[in-house]
């Protein structure tokens, strides 16, 4: 059950790793994915150990807003992690989508992707892996708090990412329209994390009064079912659109030949 949970919640993480690794120099991209995942999995196990020991203190809100009609609710450690992670992911996705819209030539786009150092990309992959893993670790702790079992599931999910990362990256390189789709999925992930921030304190303390409210409206997180349904719809639309575009190109080529 834990391996399945890690696999489902790790989908967006794997997508981010595949996209971000392409920003490193071409010769180092495979090594960036390998070391980024290895270091991130090791730190995730450390994070798990720390959270098991400090779960109660991390759950306690360190600030409670009490301005009715303006802002209400509690803020704990998880709230801050989800807000920072959500904002960063949204910023990254919007920046890359904007670049794709402004690029003039494919070659210049490829040069741009090799503009970051390998060390910087590894650091970003590790950082975002920890942010993504925070939600999955909290979900795993709801199933069991036995450290060896949880650590084994995390290591197995890391091995699965190592096996799949290169294949996903090659697929995105050969089918670049799906990279745009991936960036929009990351954009949705950022919104999901911001929604999770609104209820992090209330869920941790089992107190609905700690849910964040702005101008009297409670922040409602997107359900995982809604998120994955949106992802499936985006993929279906992209597949249909790609097939239709190929059909039009074939008809145009046939018409010009005649």
Structure description:
Helix content is 77%, strand content 5%. It is mainly α. It has two domains: 2-222, no CATH class; 223-258. A hairpin with a 3-residue loop joins strand 1 and strand 2. Helix 2 crosses helix 7 (147-174). The protein is globular, with a radius of gyration of 21 Å. The N and C termini lie far apart (59 Å).
C-alpha Rg (nearest Å): 21 Å
Biggest beta-sheet profile: 4 strands, antiparallel
Helix content: over 70%
Count of strand segments:
4
Residue fraction in strands: 5-15%
- Taken in chain order, the helices and strands follow as HHHEEHHHHHEEH
Kindly report how far apart the N and C termini lie.
59 Å
The unreliable regions are: none
* Mean pLDDT metric: 79
Main sheet: strand order: 1-2-3-4
Query: Which structural class best describes the helix and strand composition?
Result: mainly alpha
By DSSP (H or I, 4+ residues per run), the number of helices equals 9
Q: Give the total of domains.
A: 2
Cα shape: globular
Detail the topology: elements first, then pairings:
Elements: H1 2-9, H2 11-21, H3 29-59, E1 63-67, E2 71-75, H4 77-102, H5 106-113, H6 118-141, H7 147-174, H8 177-205, E3 213-214, E4 217-218, H9 224-257
Antiparallel strand pairs: 1-2, 2-3, 3-4
Summarize the structure.
The chain is mainly alpha-helical.
């Amino acid at each position: 059950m834990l391996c399945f949970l890690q696999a489902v919640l790790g989908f967006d993480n794997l997508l981010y790793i595949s996209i971000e690794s392409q920003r490193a120099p071409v010769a180092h991209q495979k090594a960036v994915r390998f070391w980024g995942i290895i270091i991130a999995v090791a730190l995730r196990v450390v994070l798990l150990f720390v959270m098991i020991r400090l779960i109660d203190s991390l759950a306690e809100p360190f600030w409670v807003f009490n301005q009715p009609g303006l802002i209400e609710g509690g803020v704990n450690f998880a709230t801050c992690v989800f807000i920072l992670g959500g904002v960063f992911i949204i910023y990254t996705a919007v920046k890359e989508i904007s670049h794709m819209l402004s690029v003039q030539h494919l070659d210049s786009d490829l040069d741009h992707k090799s503009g970051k150092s390998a060390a910087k990309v590894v650091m970003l992959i590790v950082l975002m892996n920890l942010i993504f893993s925070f939600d999955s670790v909290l979900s795993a702790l709801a199933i069991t708090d036995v450290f060896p079992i949880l650590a084994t599931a995390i290591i197995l999910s890391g091995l699965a990412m190592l096996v799949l990362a290169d294949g996903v990256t090659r697929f995105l390189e050969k089918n670049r329209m799906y990279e745009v789709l991936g960036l929009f999925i990351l954009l949705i992930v950022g919104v999901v994390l911001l929604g999770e921030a609104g209820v992090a304190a209330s869920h941790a303390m089992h107190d609905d009064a700690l849910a964040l409210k702005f101008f009297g409206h409670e922040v409602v997180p997107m359900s995982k079912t809604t998120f994955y349904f949106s992802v499936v719809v985006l993929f279906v639309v992209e597949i249909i659109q790609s097939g239709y575009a190929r059909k039009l190109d074939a008809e145009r080529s046939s018409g010009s030949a005649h």
